[in-house]
Amino acid sequence: MTGPVTQALAAFRAEPRAAGWRELPFFNDGAADQVTARVDDVIETGAQVLPPPDAVFNALLLTPLDQVKAVILGQDPYPTPGDAHGLAFSYQGARRLPASLRTILAEMAQDLGQPMPKTGDLSNWAKQGVLLLNTALTVEAGKSGAHLKFGWSELVDQAVAAVSEKQPAVAFLLWGAPARKRAILIDRSKHLVLEAGHPSPLNRLNDFKGTRPFSRANAWLVEKGLEPVDWRLD
């Protein structure tokens, strides 16, 4: 009997929206099966893994490869049950917005002259072609970073490289050191790369605020003849 995350992987592979992503080596060389089996082993011990299995591959399903026009990379899902739903930085919890997301949305509001959103659910971005991908697609409840070395990062590297290769013009918004390391995977002759510090309040350099990534990305997309992203959430 297979575990719930392995079952989610099988469901992902069967999804028409996954067609482009399914071609990545990660899904064909056994890596995906090894990672999901490892996550299922953790679940077998009685630990709670987040997000729910049916949301683990949400970032790839909501933003098919041939529709990507912007990329935002995060670290791993929120470790509190009910908060994460498979999209980097996106939040469905009922409490105050997480600090990094609050910084992101405050920058967006100031950058675009919009009111601060009341919601932290970024699904609307994903449906417009903004790939919101975490370095690890799963986490153990209460243990931030617990699955960062499970092998998910291989998927992220391949996804970034595939977007760079296959898409004609994409704005990559790389925030913080782990995301910025992946700039080497991007063909800058085709794509826009906007690098900045991490929006976390723990970032002592505070080099995210004022970088205006949302308006800059949109101006570039328009320049390339593409529809800009409607970053509003409410």
TrEMBL record:
Record EC number: 3.2.2.27
Domain of life: Bacteria
Gene Ontology terms: cellular component: cytoplasm
Transmembrane segments: none
One Pfam assignment: UDG
Active site per UniProt: D76 (proton acceptor)
Main location: cytoplasm
Occurrences of domain Uracil-DNA glycosylase-like (ranges): 61-221
Catalytic activity of the protein: Hydrolyzes single-stranded DNA or mismatched double-stranded DNA and polynucleotides, releasing free uracil
Matching PANTHER family: URACIL-DNA GLYCOSYLASE (PTHR11264:SF0)
Family stated for the protein in its record: Belongs to the uracil-DNA glycosylase (UDG) superfamily. UNG family.
Function: Excises uracil residues from the DNA which can arise as a result of misincorporation of dUMP residues by DNA polymerase or due to deamination of cytosine.
Name of this chain's protein: Uracil-DNA glycosylase
The organism of origin for this protein: Microvirga aerophila
